[in-house]
Amino acid sequence: MKATALFKNGLWISYATFVTRIFAFLSSLVLARLLQPSDFGIIGIAYVFWSFFSLFIQDTAGAFIIYKGIEHPKYVNTAYTISLLVGIALAVGVAATAPFVAMFFKEPTLTWILVAFAFNLILSSASYVYSSVMTRQLKYRAIANITLVNSITRLVSTTAAAFLGFSYWSFVIGDTASWIVNCVLTRYYSKYKFRLQIDPEVKSEVKSFYFGTVASSFGLYTNFNIDNFTVGKLLGSTSLGYYNLAYQLTNAFSSIVGAIFNQLGMPVFAQLSHDQQQKTLLKVVEQTAILTVAICASIFLVVDSQVVTLVFGAKWIPIVNVIPGLLIFSYFRIINSSLFSMLVAKGRPDINAKVNLQIAPIAVISFILGANLGGIVGVSLAVALVLGVGWTVYWWWVACRSLGWSFKQFIVPCFIPILLIIPGLLISFSLPLLIRPFTLILTYLISIRIFMPQMFGKYKIKVNQLLKRVQNLRHNN
In the chain, pLDDT over 90 holds for what percent of residues? Predict the structure, then answer.
């Protein structure tokens, strides 16, 4: 892929994911004003189970199509058929288990919420395959436009339902409307003639990749959702409402970056040689870490009780104490997104599965201890230490050992930016709110200039080149 095309595709993906998060934030903002924390808690429990069942669909058959290509219909049709069959089976499973889930959490309304989510599973099983075909076709502009339409549909449907008094059902209505639109549009724009067919020659290969990806996704699900499960069960739906909103806010940026790596990074990494993959991944980690730590630190400095009261209302002040730990997790989640995409691109989802499944029991124990010792703040600190620091170190160690790469070469860039941002945090924290971010960035740049002069020089050259291009454009106009 040429650099120009890569840049354009990256812009379209960034635009699509940014739009998604902006509309999601607007939706959360409106709903936080209209609904109670307990309403967020109830739907948060439902989303935990939605995430569990959707892990058997998302990034499974679709990821295989991106990995294998669309040149051979037997691979695409087999993956498509398996995805639909799994989606139908999961929908039946969700509907059957919904009453028991409602009884376990003592929330009767969960039964019908999960039944509605079962219908969405069937839609998503088809949508993910259509989207993967479009990704392989490099139709990033169409994907971006579809994402925009989906986001608008969800925002309008959700907020309209909330204004009409549908409470937590507003989330269900918005999600269902969005999935219907997404399924219709991705099917139309993929322009691929799918057939219900399972080719016996490729069935085993598809199943092997599928189950390897599911195992990896199961570990990710456990690590990303068991904290919500723990809070909901041990601390109640109101506490889960606080935790859920804080999680959405702090992980908005990591969701954007993760989507970019999954949609763009995976097909790009797959086309590189082994040595090129190593060099490219190292550059991505270095650049991502330097940028991400500044964004997370800025969020930490500006989100205080006054800001939360102004934006969401005084009833949401408890999320302020949860945000720091979740920001640490968000930072490392972004760093690890590139590694996840690289391993899938190399046809090694088994490494992701191994690490995620091994870290999951430790995460569960830490969340339970955190909830009992410190409530939702304790859970957030457990997330930061186990899923942030611990998970990152172990994951890169296993991956580098399996691929024959230098562990030190990759792990050092993950932590150096954290050390460089600390002086800026200490200096800025006691300053007035409006000047905190500017002081932080200035101090951070000075730290980079002192301790990473080569990196600072590269940024300086890039900035000068950008300024020259702007001047040339003005001159030509």
Answer: 24
**CA distances (Å), origin 389, targets 256, 414, 423:** 21, 10, 20
Please report, to the nearest 10 degrees, the dihedral formed by the alpha carbons of residues 218, 209, 139, 145 taken in order: -20
Residue with tokens 């490392």: 332
pLDDT digits 0-9 by tens, 34-54: 777 877 788 878 887 787 777
Name the nearest CA neighbour of 270 among 158, 348, 166, 171: 348
Give the span between the Cα atoms of 257 and 292, in whole angstroms. Answer: 10
Distance, in Å, from the CA atom of 94 to the CA atom of 172, rounded to the nearest integer, reads 15
pLDDT band at 6 (very low <50, low <70, confident <90, very high): low
Residue count of the chain: 477
HEC readout, the chain: CCHHHHHHHHHHHHHHHHHHHHHHHHHHHHHHHHCCHHHHHHHHHHHHHHHHHHCCCCCCHHHHHHHHCCCCHHHHHHHHHHHHHHHHHHHHHHHHHHHHHHHHHCCCCHHHHHHHHHHHHHHHHHHHHHHHHHHHCCCHHHHHHHHHHHHHHHHHHHHHHHHCCCCCHHHHHHHHHHHHHHHHHHHHHHCCCCCCCCCCCCHHHHHHHHHHHHHHHHHHHHHHHHHHHHHHHHCCHHHHHHHHHHHHHHCHHHHHHHHHHHHHHHHHHHCCCHHHHHHHHHHHHHHHHHHHHHHHHHHHHHCCHHHHHHHCCHHHHHHHHCHHHHHHHHHHHHHHHHHHHHHHHCCCHHHHHHHHHHHHHHHHHHHHHHHHHHHHHHHHHHHHHHHHHHHHHHHHHHHHHHHCCCHHHHHHHHHHHHHHHHHHHHHHCCCCHHHHHHHHHHHHHHHHHHHCHHHHHHHHHHHHHHHHHHHHHHHHC
Nearest of 43, 386, 372 to residue 235 by alpha carbon: 372
CA 51, CA 334: separation in Å to the nearest integer?
19
Tokens 């903002």 belong to which residue? 29
The CA-based angle 25-26-30, given to 5 degrees, is: 115
Closest CA to 39 of 97, 129, 107: 107
Residue showing tokens 């990473």: 452
Give the per-residue pLDDT at 81: 85
Q: Which residue has the tokens 């899938």?
A: 344
CA dist., res. 192 & res. 80, Å (int): 11
The pLDDT score that the predictor gives to residue 165 is: 83
Distances (CA, A) of 224 to 35, 55, 57, 295, 432: 25, 12, 17, 21, 34
